[in-house]
Design goal:
heterodimer; A: alpha/beta; six-stranded mixed β-sheet; four-stranded antiparallel β-sheet; B: two-stranded antiparallel sheet; two-stranded antiparallel ribbon; 4 strands
Chain lengths: ~325, ~375
């Protein structure tokens, strides 16, 4: 990739002092996010995802280097944050103020030159902000409720307002921390659509989650973080293989089944047992059954075992796929 | 950028609940005091006319009265105290002679007693106040106007309760309201944003933490000053509607060693200035406490607790001049403060004030910069 990364993190370390001594919440994490790419930050609760994100968004002090849009966050804090849009933990609002007020306020403390992009020179800033706010409200379908206090909004509306906040400034880098937390499926889909949309427009996205399935649907690439270190960097296909559901098929000719699976679905990870074949694939069970039966095999049973995130971690950690964060980051891209 | 941050903070800090509550309390107390003071005025009118009748003089009361209630801090007979007594130039001059003698005696006593002199009320101070008043009457030939002096000797104005006296007294009483409002606004501005998480929204925007701190502090100070001005306007409106305007344009000013009388217009400016200093100092204390504790209640309560309660105890212990509460009251430098104990010293108290304020501001900025905002 010859484009320069929109986010470049190297050797990010964050530790807290506690009575038991130093606790390294994030330990030497390095990675890059490129324009148009959606990178997932995947790890169980307490792995250090949010801590890392707080450091990257300038909310918390850290050791190491963070560059947003090529600008170092430590040396030019304001310059680096110009390119950033972020929702950390939850979308945050002034609940007693209206949705429109919240958006206008956020726009008013954003960079003026960024806001003016796409507007004729000499246009009044107030008009620019108004236009951007109305456009963002329309995009998320909140125009009708724009004058109501945000405190009266439903959770889904708040989430959409959070999206509108991100849309106002057209950031180069979007960071979403656990965006699906507490959302219903519609809300999650809204977030997913937004992420896809902004990525298609060239924005780099870093999104954290502890839900494997969600990451698979949203991301191009996933960084697996555990105990403050990146233990693996996987493309979405690799993640599918690692995590994809394990399927067991009971049949009298497993070897033939293996051949058919390879031909029809390209599955080459099948393990053959005496009367059974096991493999990982996201393919629908009905399709597999049909092809096997069409291929002349008797299928006595088929079932899918969901593999948990923990299984992937254990697998990664035990296989020594990455001994530390630095090495894993070396093979990022 | 600072301008936009400031304007945003100013709007965010508007607290309708606090404004309504404090305004209602102020209104109720002001109306109550208006009724009480009106009753008092009626009473003094009655006494004055009775006294005048008994002397067989003009019955149109106030025109011939001089109501001079001098301080009762000494055991000396007051120069004049009774409504209805009329002063002549000769009487004033005799009174002054008498007071000069008492002053000499008191100073001799002070020289003899040394430090023990301060175990009792400062007679020298009180006598100087009486002298200043009589000299003022003499110099301005105010033989037929109304002069009233509060029992602590701090104010002299027209007879009975005038509009000016009402505003002056009510201002002292109601000053707590803008102080509370300033504490609420300044104490909760960071704490609320940390609690609701909106601080993350602000700090992930391209703004520096220093500029955010400055914007919040200046916005809180603006709220404090507006709150004070609103209270002052309310008191003035009620005062001038309910009471007669005084016809003497002077206010008693106690400097450290020499009490003087100053025109009330300049006194009003001094009240305003010293009040604003105290108000902004409260704002800084609440702001700092809110940042340090990240708790709005602590932020709001700290200044009042520190100044009114801890400060009083420390003043009683005799070490007040180095504590923050005494340092906030600039009235003591210009002699309009009731906290004057003879210990106020511009060259000690002002640096003490400056050190406290600078330290709190420095640590406010430092903590916001260094502490993780989550």
């Amino acid at each position: 990739m010859n484009e320069s990364p929109v986010l470049e993190v190297s050797g990010l370390t964050k530790y807290y002092r506690s009575r038991r001594g130093e606790v390294r919440a994030v330990d030497g994490v390095s990675f890059k996010v490129f324009p148009g790419e959606v990178v997932g930050f995947l790890g169980p609760n307490g792995a250090g995802k949010t801590t890392a994100i707080k450091a990257v968004t300038g909310l918390a002090d850290y050791e190491g280097s963070v560059k947003i849009g090529g600008i170092d966050l430590k040396t030019d804090h304001v310059g680096a944050l110009r390119s950033l849009g972020a929702i950390v933990e939850n979308p945050d609002f002034y609940l007693k103020k209206s949705g429109e007020w919240n958006l206008k306020y956020l726009a008013s403390i954003s960079d003026e030159n960024d806001l003016r992009k796409g507007f004729p020179a000499g246009e009044k800033l107030k008009n620019v902000i108004d236009a951007r706010v109305q456009k963002a409200l329309e995009a998320v379908g909140l125009t009708a409720r724009k004058k109501s206090a945000v405190g009266t909004y439903s959770l889904g509306m708040k989430q959409r307002l959070g999206i509108a906040q991100m849309l106002i400034t057209e950031p180069k880098l979007l960071i979403l921390d656990e965006p699906a937390n507490g959302l219903d499926p519609d809300g999650i889909k809204d977030i997913r659509d937004l992420v896809r949309k902004v990525a298609a427009a060239g924005c780099g996205v870093l999104v954290s989650s502890h839900q494997l399935h969600e990451m698979q649907l949203m991301c191009d690439r996933v960084l697996i973080i555990s105990a403050g270190r990146i233990v693996a960097s996987l493309s979405i296909d690799e993640l599918g293989e690692e995590s994809g559901a394990k399927i067991n098929v009971k049949t009298d000719d497993p070897e033939a089944a293996k051949r058919i699976l390879k031909e029809k679905f390209g599955i080459d990870n099948a393990e053959v047992f005496s009367k059974e074949i096991r493999f990982r694939s996201a393919t629908e069970l009905s399709e597999i059954t049909r092809e096997l039966v069409v291929g002349g095999l008797n299928v006595y049973g088929i079932n899918r075992e969901e593999v948990s995130l923990e299984d992937v971690f254990m697998n990664k950690v035990h296989n020594g796929a990455a001994e530390n964060g630095e090495r894993s980051s070396d093979n990022v891209r | 950028m600072l301008g936009k941050l400031y304007w945003g903070e100013f709007r965010k800090q508007v607290s309708p609940g606090a404004i309504i509550t404090l305004t209602v309390i102020t209104l109720v107390l002001t109306v109550l005091m208006t009724v009480l003071f009106s009753a008092f005025n009626d009473l003094t009118d009655e006494i004055a006319s009775e006294v005048n009748n008994s002397f067989g003089e003009s019955s149109n009361g106030f025109d011939v009265d001089i109501d001079v209630g001098l301080t009762d801090k000494t055991e000396e007979p007051n120069a004049v105290a009774v409504p209805g007594t009329t002063y002549t130039a000769e009487q004033v001059s005799l009174g002054l002679e008498y007071l000069y003698d008492r002053l000499d005696e008191a100073e001799a006593e002070k020289a003899e007693l040394g430090y023990d002199y301060y175990r009792h009320p400062d007679r020298i101070y009180a006598i100087k106040g009486q002298i200043a008043l009589l000299e003022y009457i003499r110099d301005n030939e105010l033989y037929d106007v109304h002069i009233g002096v509060l029992s602590d000797g701090s104010v002299a104005m027209g007879a009975g309760i005038t509009a000016e006296l009402f505003v002056t007294m009510m201002r002292a009483l109601m000053f707590l309201m803008p102080l509370i409002y300033a504490s609420i606004v300044a104490g909760s501005t960071f704490a609320d944003e940390l609690k609701s998480g909106t601080i993350k929204l602000v700090l992930t925007r391209p703004v520096t933490r220093n500029s955010l701190t400055t914007a919040k502090l200046l916005a809180a100070m603006t709220h404090a000053v507006i709150g004070y001005a609103a209270m002052f306007a309310l008191l003035a409106a009620i005062g001038y509607a309910a009471f007669p305007a005084g016809n003497i344009d002077a206010v008693f000013m106690f400097n450290n060693s020499s009490p003087t009388l100053a025109p009330s217009s300049s006194a009003l400016g001094i009240y305003f200035t010293t009040d604003i200093v105290m108000l902004l100092s409260y704002t800084v204390i609440a702001f700092f406490a809110g940042i340090l504790s990240r708790n709005r209640i602590v932020g709001i309560v700290t200044p009042i607790l520190l100044v009114e309660i801890v400060g009083s105890v420390i003043s009683l212990a005799g070490i007040g001049r180095f504590f923050i509460s005494d340092a906030l009251d600039w009235g003591q430098f210009v002699g309009i403060s009731s906290t004057v104990t003879g210990g106020a010293n511009f060259f000690i108290t002002l640096p003490v004030w400056a050190v406290y304020m600078a330290a709190m501001l420095f640590f406010s900025y430092f903590i916001v910069r260094k502490r993780d905002a989550v």
